[in-house]
Specification:
With about 300 residues, the protein is α/β, with parallel strands linked by helices. Helices cover about 55% and strands about 10% of the residues. It contains 13 helices and 7 strands. A 5-stranded parallel beta sheet has the order 4-3-5-6-7. Strands 1-2 form a two-stranded antiparallel sheet. α6 crosses α8. The longest helix is centred in the middle third of the chain and has 21 residues. The radius of gyration is 23 Å and the shape is elongated. The mean pLDDT is about 85.
Length: about 300
């Protein structure tokens, strides 16, 4: 527990709250909004209470409450105001902030409490698409700016993974779609970020499919065995950090020649690594998607085509 980060620089606060460090300094001087400690060299250090207050202040300020008014409120009044604004379905940043606090303090109880309240208010799919995905994107930025370390990312990712598994489990043993396509979900070698792929697994189950989920770091040659058993496979993968940029074209070309060419198979790709791939340059049977929403739409179209064919 001694490694939990409880002291933050003003740059950390800027990265976590979205409020510029210059503005934070002005708010401190003008309104005594935060009370940082000072090092021997006069560097500001903020505790978790300061972080939580700034996140709440940022939320209210972004919703039109003037900082001069916020500064006059007591801590309990600020919290009450946040709840009032948060009652609107469109105001979800307070939930993202609450998840951030749970991550920074390695607090699973706060995570579960926030998650339960969010699902009760919005439902699982909206929570994942509007809140969890925003949180994960922001975590990537926080990691790059050294505001958090890999332990924070692993902590929050594990909790999100648990929630996804619970939702997917609800669909197990239900009747599957009568479609002739088999979906195989995998991540390439050395790719371990599987939350996006897990959510696609959830989407497929929710639409009546029973996909084959292989998970992270799957050697391409291992997929060859599946081709022997299924006539038409749609492989789906999610590139977050692998393959490396300069190796993506080679990966796609090799995958096409060994698993797609001359067969009824497809390869669907998502993730940050695929965004640079121009559709016109992709071989036949390979498609890239720019979001989880777009792949959901493609599955709906596939279902409609299957219904029409019947």
């Amino acid at each position: 527990m001694n490694n939990i980060k409880t002291s933050f620089s003003i740059k950390d606060l800027e990265n976590l709250s979205g409020i510029k460090a210059h503005t934070i300094r002005i708010w401190e001087k003008r309104y005594n909004l935060l009370q940082p400690e000072r090092t021997d060299t006069n560097i500001r250090l903020y505790d978790l209470n300061n972080l939580q207050k700034l996140l709440n202040v940022s939320f209210l300020n972004n919703n039109g409450v003037k900082i001069s008014h916020i500064a006059k409120l007591k801590p309990e009044e600020i919290a009450l105001k946040v709840k009032e604004f948060a009652s609107s379905e469109d105001n979800n940043s307070h939930l993202v902030n609450s998840f951030k606090l749970s991550m920074m303090n390695f607090d699973p109880l706060l995570f579960h409490k926030t998650y339960s309240e969010a699902v009760e208010q919005l439902g699982f799919e909206k929570v994942f698409n509007k809140i969890i995905w925003q949180l994960l994107n922001e975590i990537g930025i926080l990691w790059q700016t050294d505001t958090i370390n890999p332990a924070h990312e692993h902590f929050i990712s594990y909790l999100v993974r648990q929630k996804l598994l619970v939702e997917i489990e609800k669909f197990n043993f239900q009747n599957s779609s009568d479609g002739e396509v088999t979906f195989v979900l995998f991540l390439p070698m050395h790719e371990i970020h599987e939350l996006g792929l897990m959510y696609i697994n959830y989407i497929l189950h929710s639409k009546g499919y029973q996909p084959i989920y292989l998970g992270p770091s799957v050697p391409r040659e291992n997929l060859l065995d599946l081709v022997k058993y299924y006539k038409s496979i749609t492989f789906i993968s999610y590139f977050t950090i692998e393959p490396e940029h300069e190796k993506i074209s080679d990966f796609i070309s090799d995958f096409h020649s060994k698993l797609l060419k001359g067969k009824e198979n497809q390869l669907w790709l998502l993730g940050n690594r695929t965004k640079e791939q121009v559709a016109e340059n992709l071989p036949d049977q390979v498609t890239t998607f720019n979001s989880l929403h777009s792949i959901s739409g493609a599955l709906d179209q596939l279902s409609q085509l299957s219904s029409t064919a019947v």
